[in-house]
Design brief:
The chain is α/β, with parallel strands linked by helices. It has 13 helices and eight strands. The chain has a single domain, classed as Rossmann fold (3-Layer(aba) Sandwich), CATH 3.40.50.
Length: about 300
């Protein structure tokens, strides 16, 4: 595993915000040249958009990385009625603000369902999903879940607001970081525990929870509920990146096999020597592959 430098996890180059139609603030962060090819990044569970990926490659590849805070996380105002669809509509409004019709998108972990919801709106040119959470209500995936996760999925399907309220009762940034470590393979823990990456990841979580746990709780309820769209309706090319060593039970239990079969234009890449942290350990490869469509 690589030893990351401070340049790999540097703070954003720019911080911006806009006011949505319902007067909520939507915040986002940027790295790379302002005139570079835009790339939208959906972060993982509980994270503010302050931890990018591949930032050491952006100048050379002429990429402008844009990482928004989902509602209730970081600097974005909460949306008590948040769903996958409402977040996708917020991101579509961001694209309108930036005068972008369709955009390349990268998503990590819990960010994956939100990225697919945006793709379902027809606003995504090409999508890269890394260690992405799948639709855990899909029967073959549900049957492979550990009991504690399958119980949450059932709860989300029956009473998503109740699941969110339950999570709000105990979730916090440090607890989520410890949970992520406990679910991670040794190869991932080497990355997540080592500075400067560990400090940057913890900071992104603390900034994500700055308004309290509601944003994370509603995200989790939304992603564990039955998805309000069919992946078969997503028309853009999708690359699914998974590591054979990924042990997280809340990612895809079959490492994207079922999801690849549901998407009409998907390529699945399973890397034998990687876990869930491949977004950072293989960032240049993922960026070059994703942006090929714009070459």
């Amino acid at each position: 595993m690589p030893a990351f430098s401070s340049d790999v996890v540097r703070r954003p180059d720019r911080h911006r915000s806009m006011t949505l139609a319902d007067n909520r603030k939507l915040a986002w962060y940027e790295w790379g040249p302002q005139d570079g090819t835009p790339l939208l990044f959906f972060t993982g569970a509980g994270m503010a958009g302050t931890l990018g990926f591949g930032v050491e490659h952006l100048e050379r590849l002429s990429i402008r990385l844009i990482a928004p805070d989902r509602p209730g996380l970081g600097g974005s105002d909460p949306d008590p009625a948040k769903t996958l669809t409402t977040v996708a509509m917020d991101m579509a409004a961001l694209l309108d603000e930036l005068a972008i019709d369709k955009i390349a998108v990268a998503a990590f972990s819990q960010g994956a369902p939100f990225s697919m919801a945006l793709a379902n709106l027809g606003r995504v040119e090409r999508l890269a999903i890394t260690a992405g959470q799948d639709d855990l209500n899909t029967l073959c995936l549900f049957e492979a879940l550990p009991d504690e996760v399958s119980h949450m999925v059932v709860h989300a399907g029956r009473d998503p607001s109740g699941l969110a309220t339950w999570l709000e009762g105990f979730a916090d940034a440090d607890g989520l970081f410890d949970l992520i470590l406990s679910m991670s393979a040794p190869t991932d823990r080497e990355i997540y525990r080592a500075d400067p990456f560990a400090t940057a990841y913890r900071t992104a979580l603390h900034e994500g929870f700055a308004q309290g746990p509601e944003g994370y709780a509603l995200d989790t309820a939304a992603t564990m509920s039955p998805w309000p769209f069919d992946p078969a309706d997503i028309g853009c090319p999708v690359t699914l990146w998974y590591g054979e060593l990924d042990t997280s039970p809340v990612h895809s239990p079959d490492k994207g096999t079922t999801l690849a079969g549901r998407l009409p234009d998907a390529e699945r890449r399973l890397l034998a020597d990687e876990g869930s942290a491949l977004l950072w350990s293989r960032s240049e490869q993922i960026l070059r592959d994703l942006m090929t469509v714009n070459a």
